[in-house]
Amino acid sequence: MSNVLSIGKSALNAAQIGIATVGHNISNASTPGYNRQVVVQAAAQAQNFGYGYVGQGTNVVGIQRVFNDTLSKQVINATATSNASGAYYSNISQVNGVLSDSTAGLNPVITSFFSAVSAAAANPSDTATRQTLISSAQSMVNRFNAVNNQLDQMRESINTQITSSVDAINSYSTQIATLNDTITKAVNSTGNTPNDLMDQRDQLVAKLSEQIKTTVIKQDDGSYNVFAGTGMPLVVGTQQYSLYTRASDTDPTRVEVAYGNPASPKILSVDTVSGGTLGGVLQFRSETLDSVQNQVGQLAMTLASQFNAQQTQGYDLNGTLGTNLFSIGGPTAISSAYNTDPTKTASASILDPSLLTNSDYTVKYNSGMYTITRVNDKSIMWQGTALPATIDGMEVNVNTSSPTEGDSYLIKPTQYAAGKLSMAFTDVDKLALAGSATTGPNDNENGLKLAALQTGANVRVAGSNTNRTYTQAFAQMVSAVGTKTNELSITSKADAMALENATSAMQSESGVNLDEEATDLLRYQQAYQAAGKMMQIASQLFEVLLQMGQ
């Protein structure tokens, strides 16, 4: 009789655990990252009574979470891809909005400026027309400054996004390492897996993949080794490895991602830090923002330089040789933070604006030789033992005859040009529209040459050996950004859909279905009632036996 009671007790216990597990599932139906759990039962060891084996009830051998590793990896990969394309698209959309605005963009002010030049050339002695030209020039300068400021603000925003992502990555990886330790100890001490802690860890991995491409390798002891990007270890067992932010070696305003020795972490390349929000913003900055700001600067520098060059060929209303209308900032040369002697600096000056490109250049001294590389296409433009050197319309030099091995410099010919552009004078009499000092105020020879600059092929554009007009160069830049924006719009939507599908597949297997849980709850309730009834009957039979013995 005691055997029947024991069997009933095991059934009662199993049903009670089942109800508790279902209740746990229901209560966590809305918990992010929660995977439903199921009770695993097995028949208790049967007992041989000679006439056969009599069952001894049931044992609860474990509570497992429903988790599919393959689907989980798909979700992690889709999350990193979707966040990367989403971050890129979000940022490039802002650039596209700045450039393509039909009223606030650069194209309207450039067109208006040359219309004013043509009007002044048609009536060179008219002070009002000259004033319109000065006003149009000022408007164009203001627009170049404003566009550059907007791009600078985006650059600062990128720095903030990078810092925020790195902080989040370090926080998530630290928590994963801590959970690795807790989970490993729990498994070793009890032999059972702490399902809720494992859910929390997988949720952290999912959050990590929002920031950067994440790869997880399960270990035999239940811990995760987590790698980021192209394979940087972030978590190995209970050890966490941090990412860092630090200023670029050649641009203190540029925040970069670094990894390695905390005392001197090495800056990572964009290709190394791929996927997630962090990978997306880094890719946007290197592929689009740098290029666009350089092209805007190239357009400002080329237009202003060529207008100044022609302006200084003519004569103003006073018969004086013309002077520069625009003040233009020169190229910026930055020494690497690792150069041993800060007094050794590089310099660059523009010789021919029509040959300028929108690329930056690196100057490195190794093995007794300088190498100048164009960053955009990584072409080696010049090698030699001594500078100066002339490349792409500018002269590059270093102020020392005793360079140190490993010295390097970054030359930015155009990035800051639009922001530095300003008016050199606003006196209308100084506009040099005449071709001679003695022909009088109605001479418009030089004015016509100034107006002709609008249709001249004056700007070198990337990927072509043929120069373009100012408006053509700007239109090509706007078109390229617009095309990339449209491409990313489609890509980001496709990636978001892929993530949604992967998440749905994961949820359909691991998520909590309240209808199913309600069914399971009813099933366990019936099992509990049946087990209770069985124990009641066993108790009544036991009492009958006792009465028979009195």
Q: What is the overall silhouette? A: elongated
Overall strand count:
21
- Note the quaternary state here: single chain
Secondary structural class = alpha+beta
Taking all Cα atoms into account, the compactness measure Rg is 37 Å
Describe the protein:
The structure is a single chain. The chain contains 10 helices and 21 strands. It has helices at residues 2-27, 69-100, 106-122, 127-190, 195-211, 276-311, 417-420, 445-452, 470-510, 514-548, and strands at 37-43, 47-48, 53-54, 58-65, 214-218, 224-228, 232-236, 239-240, 243-247, 255-259, 266-267, 326-327, 332-335, 346-350, 361-366, 369-374, 379-384, 389-391, 394-398, 408-412, 422-423. The protein is elongated, with a radius of gyration of 37 Å. 51% of the residues lie in helices and 17% in strands. Helix 4 packs antiparallel against helix 5. The chain starts with a helix and ends with a helix. 38% of the residues are buried. A hairpin with a 4-residue loop joins strand 16 (369-374) and strand 17. It has a 5-stranded antiparallel β-sheet, with no helix packed on it. A 4-stranded antiparallel β-sheet has the order 5-6-7-8. Strands 9-10-11 form a 3-stranded antiparallel β-sheet, covered by helices on one side. The protein has 3 domains: 1-66 and 511-549, no CATH class; 81-318 and 425-479, no CATH class; 330-415, no CATH class. It is α+β, with helices and mostly antiparallel strands and 550 residues long. This is Flagellar hook-associated protein 1. Keywords: Bacterial flagellum, Cell projection, Cilium, Flagellum, Secreted. Residues 335-413 form the Flagellar hook-associated protein 1 D2-like domain.
